[in-house]
Specification:
There is one protein chain. Helix content is 35%, strand content 22%. The protein is of the alpha/beta class. It has 3 domains: 57 residues, Orthogonal Bundle (DNA polymerase, domain 1); 132 residues, Aldolase class I (TIM Barrel); 122 residues, TIM Barrel. It has a 10-stranded mixed β-sheet with strand order 3-4-5-6-9-10-11-12-13-14. Helix 5 links the parallel strand 9 and strand 10. It is elongated, with a radius of gyration of 21 Å. The chain starts with a strand and ends with a strand.
Length: 325
């Protein structure tokens, strides 16, 4: 008989699953799982020995399994390929900075959005991740950092998949991550990236959780954006920028617009001029990302000169921009 996995359950769900045990036992177990990273009931020393044995026959505590690890030469970035219970795999990226350590997690296995420059969408969408699986990615990074004597400071949901197409699981994960009995992470330390699902941006606003919203823009006009990102045909720039501005006004959180620079496609001074125009007056900043070549995608990075000129134009015309290598 398979055992129920307790990892990823909220305190209320743990109380229900463990009934008729008293509720304080659920609090103890939640603390062991989330605060102390314990995955073995035998190590829960404040529980009676016979209870620990009984729990081990009925339940397990399991997040994700490491399949592969790749470290950058400078030691600041580590990529993990994590295996899930059904054999699927997701990528997690740990980023170490002098101002803190962050993790970038995936929200889906594969992606259906079809962006022309992206490798993640090549095989389409396999399935959504559960809230527990997304939380498991975060805890893997948190435990890895703990082994280095460091702590996790921020979370970015910007890996494979479109987070807002997995809305309910995303919100459950965010609220659980924020709970004191879990990691107690401030919503302000969390960033959610989207390619522009306007109705879901409005739903996120209505959740009243002040996470940072990051919108993948990548073009300053509808014609080019629709050619690069099929989602733009459903939700054009006018509605997308209005939703971004509304989110910023409602939450007081500055929206970040991601802009991948594709050599000879969207990286000229004229593109910078149009970008400045459409974002004028918004509570926003821009992350410029030089394209990272993908074998299956026929695009090239911008030249260093084009990158610097684009960056300089934005910053001298009222848009706060930075370059992400």
């Amino acid at each position: 008989m398979s055992r129920k996995n307790l990892f990823g359950l909220t305190l209320a769900e743990l109380e229900e699953e463990l009934a008729p045990l008293p509720k304080f036992r659920a609090k103890q177990i939640a603390a062991h799982i989330y605060k102390h990273g314990i995955k073995n009931f035998d190590a829960m020393n404040d529980l009676p020995k016979n209870l620990r044995a009984e729990l081990a026959t009925r339940f397990e505590i399991k997040a994700a399994e490491l399949l592969k690890r790749l470290d950058s030469r400078d030691g600041l970035t580590t990529k993990f390929l994590l295996g899930l219970a059904d054999g699927a795999a997701v990528e997690v990226v740990l980023m170490r900075h002098d101002y803190g350590n962050g993790v970038c997690i995936s929200s889906q296995v594969g992606c259906q959005m079809g962006c022309k420059f992206c490798a993640s969408t090549l095989r389409g969408l396999e399935r959504n991740l559960t809230a527990a699986e997304m939380l498991g990615e975060i805890f893997f990074a948190e435990e890895f950092l703990r082994g280095e004597g460091k702590k996790l400071d921020s979370v970015v949901v910007m890996g494979t998949g479109e987070p807002l197409m997995n809305f309910d699981a995303l919100i459950k994960m965010l609220r659980l991550l924020h709970e004191d009995y879990c990691l107690g992470m401030s919503f302000r330390k969390i960033t959610i990236s989207t390619c522009g699902i306007v109705p879901a941006i409005k739903k996120l606003r209505d959740e009243k959780i002040p996470v940072t919203l990051s919108i993948s823009l990548h073009a300053p006009d509808d014609k080019l954006r629709s050619a690069l990102m099929p989602i733009n045909s459903a939700f054009g720039l006018k509605s997308l920028l209005a939703a971004g501005d509304d989110y910023a006004q409602a939450t007081g959180r500055r929206v970040t617009y991601e802009y991948i620079l594709l050599g000879g496609v969207n990286d000229t001074e004229e593109h910078a001029r149009r970008l400045t125009k459409i974002l004028s007056g918004q509570l926003a900043n821009v992350n410029l990302i030089p394209f990272n070549p993908v074998d299956e995608r026929n695009f090239s990075p911008p030249t260093n000169g084009a990158l610097k000129k684009f960056f300089h134009f934005l910053n001298t015309h009222g848009l706060g921009a930075k370059i992400l290598a």
